[in-house]
Structures are given as structure tokens and as C-alpha cells.
């Protein structure tokens, strides 16, 4: 199960008046973190760079970094799921259109495979027309 994560920053030296939220996005090439692709310190580099020059960030219509006051958090009934992740809309096609797209993609892939196999057989000097 994919679990979205926000990083919360608190200052224990005084009463909390505001809290920064920062959304740590998946690094390029990662769908999620796992045993074989664990989270590493380098993945925090964007957040650490941002920390020294904090400003609100909105990416693709979603908050990536934002400051909230205690009052704003209380008004949300203390729900701290505040920096959302962009969601891809899933398009559900009618069956006929879905099948047509599949056939077009399959034909395109078959053409690519045939072209590559022709190059390989030419390089190897193999004539597939011979019996």
C-alpha cells in the first residue's frame, strides 16, 4: 500500500503559532520506497534546501510547501493531511474504444518488433525467406 507522507516541523522553544508542511515527492524513477529501493538521506535534499529559504510552494495546483496557523489547523478539526499529492485522473473508456486503442498499440509494437528483427537478421546474414 502506498502511504503519502508529509514532513512536519515543530519548534519546541516556544508555543506553536504556525507549522510548516512540506510534501516530499517520490524521486525520479521511484514509484514507492521499498526494501530494495529504500529512502535515503539524499532524497531529503530538496526539503533541506527549501528549509533554509522557506516559502510556500504550489505545484500543479497542489500545495507542496505551506505554512498553517494553529487556528487554521484547529478549524480543520486537527486533520493534518494538508499538502496534497497530485492525482492522475483515470479515464475509463467505452469497451469499443478501449479495444481499438489496444489494437493500435499492439500493431505499433508489432511493427517495431518486425523492424528490429529485420535489422538483426540482416546483421547476422540470415535470410528468413530461404527454405
Tell me about this structure.
There is one protein chain. The chain is α+β, with helices and mostly antiparallel strands. It folds into 2 domains: 6-75, no CATH class; 91-131. It is 33% helix and 16% strand. The termini are far apart. The mean pLDDT is 85.
Read across the widest sheet, the strand sequence of neighbours is 1-2-4-3
The gyration radius over C-alpha positions equals: 25 Å
Number of helices: 3
What is the averaged pLDDT score?
A: 85
In terms of per-residue confidence, which ranges show pLDDT below 50 for 5 or more consecutive residues?
A: none
Beta-strand residue fraction: 15-25%
| Major pleated sheet | 4 strands, antiparallel
Kindly report how far apart the N and C termini lie. Answer: 54 Å
Classification by helices and strands: alpha+beta
SSE arrangement:
Layout: E1 6-9, E2 18-23, H1 45-51, E3 57-59, E4 62-69, H2 70-75, H3 95-124
Antiparallel strand pairs: 1-2, 2-4, 3-4
Descriptive tags:
131 residues, 4 strands, 2 domains, alpha+beta
